[in-house]
UniProtKB/TrEMBL annotation, chain A:
Belongs to the bacterial solute-binding protein 1 family. Keywords: Signal, Sugar transport, Transport. Residues 1-22 form the signal peptide. This is Multiple sugar transport system substrate-binding protein. It holds the Pfam family SBP_bac_8.
Automatic annotation (TrEMBL), chain B:
The lineage of its organism: Bacteria, Bacillati, Actinomycetota, Actinomycetes, Kitasatosporales. Belongs to the binding-protein-dependent transport system permease family. InterPro entries: ABC_transporter_permease, MetI-like, MetI-like_sf. Residues 93-308 form the ABC transmembrane type-1 domain. It comes from Kitasatospora paracochleata. The chain crosses the membrane at residues 33-56, 92-118, 130-150, 178-206, 227-249, 285-310. It holds the Pfam family BPD_transp_1. Its main location: membrane. This is Multiple sugar transport system permease protein.
């Protein structure tokens, strides 16, 4: 009896072990059977880009591309790139990924590139090339940052209009402070360290990139250093603003959401932020009118930092790469999705012939006007640290820069040390 | 009993009996089969889900694996020598030690004090035990979000302090000199309930006869605690110290949510946080694996050392 029980147990264990092996031998869910291919699609959810937004957009794209079944994956945070890296490290890179920077993945041969024929519908088809190839659909443009300001605070401090030069910005900040108003609202607390970056991105755009649009590529090629005066000048401006008390250091413990709320709650007059804030400003208008201006240059010439990209990337290991690209294009070119993106994320859609919905709000309209002025004047520059593609920052350095900016604002470091710190971190990141 | 068994075995040997008989052999085979049948699945799962990843991590730590910079090559001990000169890693190690020491000492001391206060019958004390244990069952992320709302510069605590007339209250999470201690305090708060429960269990195991005997011998409250209760709590101290040390060294969630390693560059970065940043943000998978391996070795060494020291003073009845 005992022997029989023992034999039964052995048989059961063997069966379990074998069934485990069988399950482990499957392809992880990317089934390719009959005429339907299952593709995984990495998305991320925010208060603006809800589960319903993604589900509806996926359904519309799938209706246009028969033979595809999309399995939606949702990143655990609003940073799908970090999650994609974790998945890639365990060999589970999704087939299609929304808003994931191709940097790192493309160089490792993990992404499929787009052909010129596939990019004909885009306004800037050759944005952010990596080794001469395009890996991310250049879906939209975002000025990063512009300075959104409280018109009532400006009026109260006797300021008649937005500053045109950097000297005027300093003068206006002085007037605001004298009137008991904190000039700048800046964030960067908790997991949102990145939110303290925008004044620096703006200053680098207006000073360093305005003078030399390829400055970062030169740095990547070893022809420039952060400690060069061309870069340090911009850093020194942020350090100076903080020293003068124009930047509220309390912001360093505020999350991104709390930072936006602080501006809404009138805890500061100016809010340097990406153009996506326009959607929020229009959808939930605060008690004051909001204006927008670009971070001023010394001589008053226009410089608007902007980034074009944001579309999906496709894995080179997708079960059917051509079909995955076709679906990603259908998803990106869908007019309804673009309309939703305009309303929820203030996207400036970079698709030829696209016209935004007529009911856009005033802050979005001002943002687009400013961007178009800059396009006409050939005054678009890159957004420092946001760039992807050749000559952009190595992985992880943007986060280090953000942590350095916190030290700069809190007075723990100065412009020279900050710049030397960046050179050192760059060397470590590329080691 | 042990001596008797040894003696019998010795007798058997002296009598010249063979060490194994066919019957003993069958019994051993049956035992081995039993072990394989019932133990093997668990062992296989353990090997596959615990040991194999550790072995793979150690193996990766000897490479320069970086998906953005292929190909992956063997670099020997380079990653480990680099650790010694990497200020990010040494800074994170120092932060981790500070957090671990604060958490271990503070949670042990407060946990013992609270356990002594709650070690009495009654519904109120039962309720209080549950209250103190609640943070333990909460997710670290939830706890961190709650504390962020309290400790932010325009959060609850500073608002109260301002209303009480403090003009410039501390930046609990934004001041680089304070943030690490704030994080350590929050981890202490969250692990306190665990300590209290372990000490309460230890106090329940202190024989009342010993306490009564000490009282009859004239020992006061403090003397009874010092000479009876405290030695009897040694196993609880061991458990708490080891668990808290490990918790301190593994601190990640709270850092990620509360400070993201800042304010500034790495002022609250711990080894676990640095491993994730290096591996997944920086793409340096080989180097991150070396950090993770170093962390494993440090935790294991500290745990064994602490265990040896603490077990020496444990009392066996």
């Amino acid at each position: 009896m005992r022997k029989r029980a023992l034999l039964s147990a052995v048989a059961l264990s063997t069966a379990l072990a074998l069934s485990g092996c069988a399950a482990g031998a499957s392809d992880g869910g990317s089934a390719k059977g009959g005429s339907t291919v299952t593709l995984t699609f990495l998305t991320f959810e925010t208060p603006n880009l809800t589960a319903k937004y993604w589900d509806d957009a996926i359904a519309r794209a799938s209706a246009k591309v028969p033979g595809v079944t999309i399995k939606k994956l949702v990143a655990p945070s609003a940073d799908p790139g970090a999650y994609a890296k974790q998945l890639a490290a365990s060999g589970q890179l999704p087939d299609i990924m929304a808003s994931v920077s191709p940097n790192g993945f493309a160089q490792a041969g993990q992404l499929a590139s787009w052909t010129d024929a596939e990019l004909t519908d885009f306004v800037s088809p050759h944005s952010n090339p990596i080794n001469g190839k395009i890996y991310q659909l250049p879906y939209n443009t975002q000025p990063i940052p512009l300075v959104y300001y409280n018109k009532a605070d400006f009026a109260q401090a006797g300021i008649t209009g937005p500053p045109k030069t950097y000297a005027e910005l300093l003068d206006d900040s002085s007037k605001l402070k004298a009137d008991g108003i904190t000039p700048f609202v800046v964030g960067g607390g908790g997991k949102d360290t990145w939110a303290d970056m925008y004044p620096l991105i703006a200053a680098v755009g207006a000073d360093t990139y305005k003078a030399d649009p390829n400055w970062l590529a030169e740095k990547a090629a070893g022809k420039a250093k952060f400690t060069d005066p061309a870069f340090t000048k911009a850093v020194a401006k942020i350090s100076d603003l903080a020293k003068k008390g124009y930047i509220d250091t309390a912001g360093l413990s505020r999350s991104y959401a709390d930072t936006e709320q602080a501006f809404r709650d009138n805890k500061g007059a100016m809010y340097p932020m990406g153009s996506w804030f326009a959607a929020s400003a229009d959808a939930r208008k605060p008690s004051f009118d909001i204006g927008v201006f670009p971070w001023p240059t010394d001589d008053g010439s226009l410089a608007v930092p902007a980034y074009t990209g944001g579309g999906p990337v496709v894995s080179s290991k997708a079960p059917d790469v051509d079909l995955a690209k076709k679906w990603a294009l259908a998803f990106t070119l869908d007019k309804t999705s673009s309309d939703v993106s305009v309303k929820t994320d203030a996207s400036i859609i970079a698709i030829k012939g696209y016209t935004p919905p007529t009911e856009v709000g005033p802050v979005y309209a001002q943002t687009v006007d400013l961007y178009q002025q800059a396009v006409k004047q050939n005054a678009i520059v890159n957004s420092f640290s946001v760039e992807t593609g050749d000559g952009s920052m190595p992985a992880g350095l943007a986060g280090k820069t953000a942590s350095g900016v916190a030290d700069l604002i809190s007075g723990k470091t100065n412009a020279d040390h900050f710049s030397a710190f960046l050179d050192n971190e760059w060397a470590k990141a590329t080691q | 009993m042990a001596a008797t068994l040894t003696q019998r075995a010795g007798e058997g040997f002296r009598a010249g009996r063979p060490a194994t008989t066919p019957r003993n052999g069958r019994r051993r085979l049956t035992k081995a089969l039993h072990f394989l049948t019932f133990g093997a699945p668990g062992l296989l799962i353990y090997l596959a889900l615990v040991m194999l990843p550790i072995v793979m991590t150690v193996r990766t730590s000897f490479t320069n694996r970086n998906p953005a910079n292929p190909p992956t090559t063997w670099v020997g001990l380079h990653n480990y020598t680099r650790l010694l000169h990497d200020s990010d890693f040494t800074g994170a190690l120092w932060n981790t030690v500070i957090v671990s020491v604060i958490v271990t000492v503070a949670a042990n001391a407060l946990g013992l004090a609270i356990a002594l206060l709650l070690d009495r019958p009654g519904r109120l004390y039962n309720l209080l035990r549950s209250v103190f244990f609640t943070p333990v069952v909460l997710s670290s992320v939830v706890v961190s979000v709650i504390w962020q709302a309290i400790l932010a510069d325009d959060g609850l605590l500073d608002t109260v302090l301002r209303n009480l007339g403090v003009a410039d209250p501390p930046g609990w999470l934004s001041d680089p000199d304070i943030a690490l201690y704030s994080v350590a305090s929050i981890i202490t708060w969250q692990t306190l309930g665990f300590c209290v429960v372990v000490y309460l269990a230890g106090l329940a195991g202190v024989p009342t006869e010993l306490l009564e005997a000490a009282e009859i011998d004239g020992a006061g409250r403090l003397a009874r605690f010092r000479h009876v209760t405290w030695p009897m709590l040694a196993p609880a101290v061991t458990i708490n110290t080891i668990m808290l040390l490990i918790s301190g060294f593994k601190a990640f969630d709270q850092i990620q949510v509360l400070t993201n390693g800042g304010p500034g560059n790495g002022t609250t970065s711990t080894i676990a946080f640095q491993v994730v940043q290096t591996t997944f943000t920086g793409n340096h998978i080989g180097y991150g694996a070396a950090m993770a391996t170093a962390m494993l070795v440090i935790i294991a060494a500290l745990a064994v050392l602490a265990l040896r020291i603490l077990q020496r003073r444990e009392v066996t009845l």
